[in-house]
Amino acid sequence: MQFTNSIRAFEAASRVIPGGVDSPVRAFGGVGGTPPFIKEAKGAFMTDIDGNRYIDFVQSWGPLILGHANEVIEEAVIKAVKKGLSYGAPTEVETELAASICGLFDTIDKVRFVSSGTEAVMSAIRLARGFTCKHDIIKFEGCYHGHSDALLVKAGSGAVTFGNPSSPGVPEGTTKHTLLARYNDLESVRACFEASEGVACVIVEPIAGNMGFVPSSPEFLEGLRTLCDTYGALLIFDEVMSGFRASLRGAQGVFATRPDMVTFGKVIGGGMPVGAFGARAEIMAMLSPEGPVYQAGTLSGNPIAMNAGLASLGEIIRKEASLYPRLKELAQRLTVGLEAAARANGIPLQTGFCGSMFGFFFNENPVRNFDEALRSDTKRFAAFHRGMLERGVYFACSQFEAGFICEPMDEAMIDTVIAHAHEVMKTL
Ligand SMILES: *Cc1c(COP(=O)(O)O)cnc(C)c1O
Q1: Which atom of ligand 1 is nearest to the CA of 239?
Q2: What is the mean pLDDT of residues 243-267?
Q3: Domains in the chain, start-ordered, CATH in brackets?
Q4: What mean pLDDT is predicted for residues 231-243?
Q5: Which residues fall within 8 angstroms of residue 17, CB to CB, at 6 or more apart?
Q6: pTM of the predicted model, to two decimals?
Q7: Angstrom distance (rounded) from CA 202 to CA 224
Q8: Taking 60 as the threshold, does the pLDDT of residue 44 lie above it?
Q9: Where are the N6-(pyridoxal phosphate)lysine residues found in this chain (predicted)?
Q10: What is the DSSP string of 232-297?
């Protein structure tokens, strides 16, 4: 496989864009080499500017559950484009998309649309603080909630540490209200509550995908619910990734635990920039202009993006009864196959899946939290990633990312990928 054009394109990009990319995860820093520059994509496949074709398990980092260039979404977008790109005034399509989301969740009476997952989460946290009149937030090591200051806190190893900024440019004062706990470890959460003078909210990826794929245990989520109720804090499920992915109702379709607030992104926009946060009416009533907590956006609820989201969700819901079980079967087929390929070559591999999300760690032991994820063999992952890429399989370029199945994939495609994995595992 040749990457000549991509290498040249990356050099050109690096002269005018920091690191050559507009989001760091795209840069292949964890696996080496230059990222393929993409020319076009359709269904399960992407083609780069050297003409290499890949089956894509990244799917734009989650949004494209119906695959690339889905015709229904495409049509909706083109129709909307012809009526103007943005008005800065209300449209009926926003109400339609909001109503379809509220109709799916008994925990959500109202939603507010924004333009990214980052915005959804930072706004949800402001609202939680406004509603509870408390300041502290509890987040988990290894969970990602976007790049806003207060949430960009490094995973420390202590169970109860006040967070340190994980990026220069984030003043310590900004993160002093962010408490860090360990995923799937209720004692560490309890300790945070005890150390705090007032916790506004606990925010969690109920099915984590940003330290690799690491699901919660049901007891963990239920324990969070109990602790939040005991201390009068709100429980926020950050379902920017798992929403409409793990199941039609995200984690709420998988676990019995109910959150107070939910954040969405990725799938909700069908490939366009959309985020949203929702909660029961009493909480959402605090939000401007109904209430005093300010939140705004020039392009929020953008008509093109709303039409893409509505077409995408409409498609998903229309296919719901068959779609999620089928995606789950493919995820299972893939992870079972990868595990068998590893085992045949004496390589320890931990795999998991939930709905259309999956993941694998080159790790001797099961992974339940960030510390355990960090014990994975990243060198081996990098070699595996490179071998698969050269055979036309596009996995996320980091050991600490999840993978995604999309609707146009089928069993034959998965079996081809597994056959490639057998070859590559032999070389590790
Ligand atoms: C991707 C992601 C975000 C951030 O969303 P952006 O649209 O990239 O700003 C927040 N939370 C979770 C769980 C995510 O996976």
Answers
A1: 13
A2: 98
A3: 4-69+321-426 (3.90.1150.10), 71-317 (3.40.640.10)
A4: 98
A5: none
A6: 0.96
A7: 8
A8: yes
A9: 266
A10: T-EEEEE-TTTTTTTSTTGGGGT-S---SEEEE-GGGGBTBS-EEEEE-HHHHTTBTTTSSB----
Residue 56 confidence (pLDDT) above 60: yes
Active site residue 238: yes
Q: Whose CA is nearest to atom 10 of ligand 1?
A: 145
259: CA distance to ligand 1 center in Å? Answer: 18
Q: Which residues line ligand 1 (CB under 6 A)?
A: 116-118, 121, 144-146, 205, 209-210, 238, 240-241, 265, 275
Pairing between β-strand 178-181 and β-strand 136-140 as defined by DSSP bridges: parallel
Torsion of CA 180, 182, 186, 188, to 10 degrees: -50
Contact 92, 303 (CB under 8 A): no
DSSP secondary structure, 17-48, as one string: SGGGSSSGGGG-TTT-S-PPPEEEEEBTEEEE
106 a catalytic residue:
no
Annotation marks residue 144 as catalytic:
yes
Phi, psi at residue 75, to the nearest 5°?
-65, -45
- Write out the two tokens for 206: 């109920």
Report how far residue 33's alpha carbon sits from residue 30's, in angstroms, rounded to the nearest whole number. Answer: 9
Report the separation in Å between the CA atom of 282 and the middle of ligand 1, taken as the mean of its atom positions: 26
Q: How far apart are CA 139 and CA 131, in angstroms?
A: 18
- The secondary element (H helix, E strand) that includes residue 207 is strand 207-208
Quick check: bond before 289 cis, omega within 30? yes
Mean of the pLDDT values across residues 393-402? 95
Helix axes 411-426, 303-344, angle to 10 degrees: 50
